[in-house]
Amino acid sequence: MKIVALNRRDFLRSSALATGGLILGFENSISANVGKSPISLSPFLQITREGKIRLGVPVVEMGQGIYTALAMSVLEELNSDVNLIEEIQTIHHPSFKHPLVAKFTNDVLQMQITGGSASLKGWSKHFQRIGATCREMLLNAAKNYWQIDSDPIVKDGLVYHPDKNHVEHFGVFARNAQKLSVPKDPIIKLPHQFSLIGTSARRWDTEKKILGKAIFGADIKLDKLIYGTVINSPIIGSKINIVDDSKAKEIPGFIGIIPLERQVIVVAESTWTAMQAAKSLFISSQAGYPDYSDIDIINKLNLDSVNDGVLAGQIKGEPEQIFRDSNTIIERSYYVGMQAQASMEPLTATANVTKESCEFWGPVQIQDNPVFVAMQIAELPAEKIKVHTTFLGGGFGRKTEADFIIPPILASKIFGKPVQITWSREEDMQGGYYLPPCLERIKVALDDKNLPLSLYAKVVSPSPSLHYAKAMGKFFPHWISEDGYDWVALEGMPQQPSLLTNEVNSENKYSIPNIKINYVPSEIPIQYGAWRGIGANANLFALESMIDEIAHYGGNDPINLRKILLKHSPRAINVLEEIEELSNWSEKREGRYLGFAYSDYLHTLQAQVAEIFLDSRNNIKVEKIYCVVDCGITHNPRIVHQQIEGGIIFGMTAALMSEINVKNGKIVQSNFDNYKMLRLKNTPKISIRTIESNESPGGIGEAGTPLVGPAIANAVFAATGKRVRRLPIRKEDLA
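Structure (tokenized):
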């Protein structure tokens, strides 16, 4: 991507930040599916007249630390620290798409998206380059200013004369630097030259959040703003046929309703009034699935499991021939239930639609979604639509959806005022897009040493991506195909392509000579979407449980078996040896039960050990989680620890406590009283060790979540001798 000097007038018109100083941006390198907008600004770096740095970035901050990480990429080249950053904001630009997503799908899917633990991998080098470009321009401006030939020194926001008798802050040279030509190929640092990257620099966004200065979806305030909420159709798949708002009209401040096919938008003078009015509505629906329950989901998955489905990824070796010739075959089935994202921040978005334009404010993971929605509802061209992205109070995939974007845009168009729509926790949890339920049939042929010789897996699950393809009117290669293949549902399985490398890579995966994976897309009438780790949650649970079963069958220690299967990878062996030491794996004492799991997921190598206690009532208490991570070059070790810890807690909740159930056509869970969260008192001690590495960086935001479930399940077997083959774990599984 070419770096250019941005026009100061366009910058002032596009940004709420004051202009001045040096302003650099990226020239758009990928053609847009929607037209270029003159009110949209490409991601940028600005040096202010006071010598501070402002950044516009193409990704969102939802707790994962990406603002700090990209700032570190810039600051590394300027030999400065995070204290120099004055402001960071997410910028929407219609032709600035995620480079890894575009490459992965052969440029078919071009979206500005934050997800897949791919933000740093996708953007870090680009922000290093813009930082290096800025450094060179400041140096050239300083050389002109001091009339010298030798290079000044840039450090900590200051430019030092070579004789060190003169020093000025960046802002002194910023305006003159803006007049210089932009260097084409500035030299960026190599990993061995890093001084900031690789350190636990403080998070830039922490202070903003502590002081209440971070702007989230509900913080948007506009003149003449009115408020609203939504009520979804009560029965799965049903359509609303009657809405009686007579009682709502008696509530002071109630403005009106907008009945839709499967939703009613309620608008009032305040959010509280809108929610009270929503509760007073009488809503009747027809059709749908009023008798649908959990057992129907299980029955459908079992019924579909007899189908062959589609080939998923690449076949390795001759698995079918090996199965025909094998004397020892182990077959098992595993199941993972539905989960909700349950972000702490409720779904909240604001829109202001006029005849001439549309502005949108909200915590969205895909910046293009409001544009696509507004083009249809407001009937405006893309250049008349502006997207403002707020901080996200958690996303976990839920905020990739467009369902909470539609109501404020539609309501603003109808009522002629800016409208802010806030979903109640109940409407989000009972009307969301869930982690799909998944049934896995695993078959393994063993050789005469009881080592896996052939692996066959059949993944039976609804597609989490199909609704995106339908909405866009096209399929995107490597991601989702017309035959039903969905890469997202197969993450964590061997022989699959990778978003981060765009190829199948088995370098750090188990050495099994023959592998075949099939995927059966199951049609279940519930909305499914992204959830932290998505397909890897079920796939790694099944694979790591099966490997543990093979170890027990062959009389092998679980880690020793993995060492045999990973002997081709010194990097993986190092992870296994480190987790043995960290967890004191070989220590045997009464009441200490350990379970192990390993993964190469998101190109991050990871091993987890769960240490559990089982009381007389079969209550599982996880005492400790040990985790060793090799994620390649570590940008910020503290953020890595935070993300792994958060992912482990997220995964533990799904393994032990939470689940979305269906009864009589309705989602049972509605809030945190019946969708249980792991509490502080139940949170185990989590010990994490990161391995220093010069390997290419892997993803980290989702890495910790899928592995903790199988580690706990394998620990349960160590404690009870009973295999757990479904998540979440229930008491009856231990009886």
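The longest strand covers residues 604-614. Confidence is low (pLDDT under 50) at residues 11-18, 29-41.
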